[in-house]
Amino acid sequence: EVRLVESGGGVVQPGGSLRLSCVCSGFFIEGDDMTWYREVPGKEEFEWVALIAHDEKTRYADSVKGRFTVSRDIAKNMIYLQMNNLKTEDTAVYYCAKPPNRGRGTQVTVSS
User: Quick check: 65 pLDDT over 80?
Assistant: First the structure.
């Protein structure tokens, strides 16, 4: 059974940083493309944030490019999202995903 569990969210001031983690089980991330999505409060849609492919190539949404970094630890079977220079518009619930599966998310709130 595929299971994804996110953690690391919290409340941070604009300009701050957070590192999200995703523990993956039921499969090996080495062979899969893994994605981070976010759901903005009040918007019933998911915004794609970042991807780390099976070959470790990464891609980012324009809105986070240069500020967010996605990475993985094969040995721990974990995915990470380092978020720097956070902005209020980054406030959202962040999900780790191996489509069609995703976790329950972790809340990130950027507020002064």
Answer: yes
